[in-house]
Write a structure and sequence with these properties.
CATH class: Mainly Beta
Number of domains: 1
CATH topology: Immunoglobulin-like
Radius of gyration: 18 Å
Structural class: alpha/beta
Number of strands: 8
Number of helices: 3
Helix content: 10-25%
CATH architecture: Sandwich
Order of helices and strands: HEEEHEHEEEE
Length: about 150
């Protein structure tokens, strides 16, 4: 094989083998994340989640955020966060159970959060959810380290 073909093949293979450490998540004026399952390779040092609200309603009416915790903690975090209000992103302040979280955004807005997965265990079950009151019970998904 000639050198240019080998170089192109090498670039292709390295891009196929690269870990996907940046995830785009869409939400709208419905109670759904897309995707609803996220798998991140253990080789990622840092993961970035880009949350995009494709709807039109404002944050006060149909705001969404992206929060990550263990399966065991997500419901308690959501319940505790209700008293924080919109200004507190419906999350309890300084809660060590929260692995990562974005602020609440409304229609047409975007936000991101980057976090290390170094302390996460591939054998643990993690949930991402929206902590807006009433959303968390149905607006959730699975986050896995693979």
């Amino acid at each position: 094989m000639n050198k240019p073909v080998l170089a192109l093949l090498g670039l292709f293979l390295s891009s196929v083998a690269a870990a996907e450490c940046e995830i785009n998540v869409d939400v709208g004026d419905s109670l759904q994340f897309s995707p609803d399952t996220i798998e991140v390779e253990a080789s990622c040092e840092t993961v970035t989640v880009n949350l995009n609200h494709t709807g039109q309603l404002p944050a006060a009416a149909m705001g969404h955020n992206w929060v990550l915790s263990t399966d065991a903690d997500f419901e308690a975090i959501a319940m505790a966060g209700m008293s924080a209000g919109l200004a507190g992103n419906y999350l309890p302040a300084d809660d060590d159970r929260i692995i990562a979280a974005t602020p609440i955004i409304g229609g047409g807005e975007s936000t991101s959060v980057s976090f290390s997965i170094a302390g996460l265990d591939a054998d643990e079950s993690y949930t991402f959810f929206c902590s807006f009151p009433g959303h968390w019970s149905v607006m959730k998904g699975s986050f896995k380290i693979v």
